[in-house]
Structures are given as structure tokens and as C-alpha cells.
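step 3/5: co-fold with adenosine-5'-diphosphate
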Amino acid sequence: MDNPNEIEIPRIGAMVEEAELLAEAVVDTVTDSLLLLDSGLRVKFANRSFYRTFSVVPRDTIGQLVYELGNAQWDVPKLRGLLEDVLPTNGRFEDVDVAHTFPAIGYKVMRLSGRKLERRPSQQPLILLAIVDVTERERALDALHASEERYRTLVETAQDGIWTIDGAGNTTFANPSMARMLGTTVEEMIGQPSFAYVFEEDADRASELFGEKMSGAREPFEFRLRRKDGSWFWASVAGAAFHNARGEPVGLLGAFRDITERKLAEEAAARHADELARSNADLQHFAHATSHDLREPLRTMCAYAQLLLRQYGGKLDDDADQFLGFIAAGAERMDKLINDLLSYSQATERDGCVVRPVELQKTVDWARKNLATTIKEAGAEIAHDPLPTVNADELQLVQMFQNLLSNAVKYARPGEPPRVHIAAQLRGNEWIVTVRDNGIGVPADKREHIFGIFKRLHGPEIPGTGIGLAICRKIAENHGGRIWVDSHPDGGSVFSFSIPVAEER
Ligand code: ADP
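step 4/5: write C-alpha cells
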């Protein structure tokens, strides 16, 4: 057996052979295109990649002057410059990009490296040219660069503040708007814990939201931030977590907007609404109390004026009888006014509105019953289409129909019996209920006016207090609807009110 420690020394010839084989294999398999040129810049050798890349065959390549290769496609001024410098300076060049439209393969960016290969003094040197097609890489880089620049410009010029923090909550990036909002500089922000800028009272909530965002929540939220000088402002933040290549959250990106003005306006509006509700309640209370209290002495006045009239009527002179009559009528009218005012103040109590499904038909019947005498005396005819069930406060709807029907009868044309027709129509998501009459109608310029409190178009020749329609308007509003009047083409008026259809649950 041979001694294992004895190393077999290879023959030089064999080594050279192997090196040649290796060199050949390498040259043949590399993806770079290789050209070996003689000192006259004629091709001595080209590898497989060269033929494949430039779509040429050996017959048209070997022995050709490099500039004349494949329809002179390599006759590029830049290459000429490079090759002509390399030999005299014994130099090399590396990674020189040549952008050129090649006849056979179109526009390409080729990255060239070349070097002079010195041989024995008797032999002319050779030049090795390595060519890599970097067109796609360059294109991708260009696109990346353009995209990066686009985003950078967007972020730098955005009016919103843009702020990124890492998983530990420290600032990794801020745009100038963000720094401006916080009254500091971008440089000062970088590396700082973001919580240093959160208003103390909102810190717990902000840290909770931070956790939610890191686990994927995207909804915008609002909290207060503190400026460098200690003052604070409301910010609305739209943000989301961003991830590494493995999809793990590594930080948060947020777009911030100063919404202090809006917040303050909202707070002021809420305060205002509160105050309004309070003062409304006070007013209602006042109206209620005064109407009650006022009626008491009024009743006494009324009763004694009538007593006087009964006992002393005809015993005094005519004037006195007339004056007593005025006092009694005035007191009675005042009582009616106060009573209506009380109804109005009750109708404005929206909280007292009990909404449930109500058959309109029933409320109409009820109102007609309450007005039976008036209707009979006037010889009025009241008809209606089939009516729906709506979501409403039953008592308020009875009151609505009672007011509209009594007006339809009261404002009839002299000598013409009142004809009233009630109908309901579904329009969009509301019922439009109409009460049409054949009466005297409402002049076009008074159609808004008459819904105001105490607004009447008549003197004492037609009794009334001018509150009925104001109550109707309140009732319509209590139900989220409106009320209005149109004139009917045949004369008369059409009063319409709307009631929203209840949402299906
Ligand atoms: P009142 O009937 O007590 O005067 P309302 O508030 O009910 O008060 O009505 C206000 C005014 O609107 C009335 O004075 C009248 O001029 C007018 N009006 C109301 N209903 C009708 C109607 N159906 N036809 C014509 N005018 C009407």
C-alpha cells in the first residue's frame, strides 16, 4: 500500500491542461459577454453569451474590427474613446455604461469593463472586453429613484405633518410640516420618544391607540399634542403600521392635521346647544307657569264680568252694557289665547313625544269627532284616501288634523260648503300627508308667514288666535318632518306635512 502521507505531485503539463479546461468552462458559462480583441481591435474570440446577447454568429464576428461588428453596431463614440485610451496608457476601465440603440436588439444600457492583457515582449498585447446588459437593472433603478423622489417631494411639501416612529415609539422620520406643527425642527425630533409630544391627559389613550395601530387598526383618531413651548393643539391622525420584508410591524406612520379650530368650534357648538336646551326648558317652564297663573285672575275677571252683565244688564245705560260686553269678550279671548299658548308650549316639549306605529285613519277619525259640531254646522264634507300607518305621537297627530280640519272649515268660501280631502303618498323615505280644501286659499306671499306664532291674515270677523299652524309646525318638526302650504289650482289650499318612514331594524 502507498504511504498516505505521500502527496502525488501533478505534472506541469496536466496542470496547464486543467487550467485551460477551467478557463474555457468559465468563459463559456458566465453570463457576461466577453470579447478578446487584438491590438488592432479585431475580434480574436467571443464567448457564447456574446453571440446570444447580440444575436450574431461567429462567422460574422471573428477577425472583424470591433467597430464593424454586426452592421457597425459597436461603433459607439464612447467605446472608441475607451478603447483608444486603454492601450496607450496600459490602463483598464471598469463599469462604464454605454447607452445605445443597437440595430438588432434595440435600446440597451451596456456596462463595459476592459483591460489590456500584456504578453511576451515579442507579442502584441490583447484587450479583454466584458459586457453586461444592465438595461433592466437601470430601468428598475430609474423607476425606484423616480418613485422615491415622488414620495420624498410629496412628503416634504405635504401640508399634513408626517411622522414615523419605530416599535419602541421613537421618532425615525418627520417632515417639515410636522416639526412646524410641534414648534420644533426635524433634527430635534429624530430619535426622540414620540410620547414626549403627547398632551399629558391624552397619554394613556395615545399609548392604547399605539398598541392597536401596531396590531393593524387603521381608523383615524384624535388627540392633543404638545408643542415645544408647552402649548397644545388638537390633531387628527390617519396612520397605520408599516412592516419589514417578513411582514412584521416595525413602526407606525401617521399623517397629522391640526384640527384645533374645528374642535373648538364643535365644543362651542355643543356648549351653545346645551345653553339653548337649558334656556328652552326655562322658557317652557316659564310659559307653562305664567299661563297657569294668568288664567286664575282672568277667570275671576271673566266670571265677574258675566255676573255683572247678567245682574245689571239693561239696568245701566247702553254704553255700560256694551263696555261690559267688551270686557267679557276680551277676557274670553285672552283665556283662549293663553290656552293656545299652553298647547304650543306643550307641543314644543319634544321629549314628551311618544313615537310608535299609529294608524293615520284613527287620528283623523278622532279629530273629526272632536270637531263634530263645527263640521255639522258648516255642512262640511270630509273625505280621505286609504291612509297608512306611520310612526308618530298619536295625540300630536290628532291635534295636527284637528287644527288643519278646523281651519279648512273656518276659512271656507262664503256660501260654499267646505269640501276637504285627506291623502297620503310615499315619497322617497317619507310620507307626505295632504289636507286639501276648497276655501279662500292663502296668498302666495303669506305661505310661510302663517306658520309663525300669532300670525293671522284676518281680523276678529273670523275668530282665532294665530297659534294653530305654529303648533302644527312644531308637531311636524317633532317628528323630523316639515309642513307647508300650496294653493290648489281650483282655488283652496293644500296643507302638506311630512313624516319620515321609520328605519327598518
Ligand atoms: P288662526 O286660525 O287661529 O288664525 P292658524 O295658525 O291656524 O291661526 O292660522 C293662521 C292663519 O293662516 C289664519 O289666520 C288664516 O289666515 C290662514 N289659514 C290657515 N288655514 C287656512 C286655510 N285652510 N285656508 C286659508 N287660510 C288659512
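step 5/5: annotate
Residues 403, 407-408, 411, 437, 439-442, 450, 455-458, 464-470, 493 surround adenosine-5'-diphosphate (CB under 6 Å).
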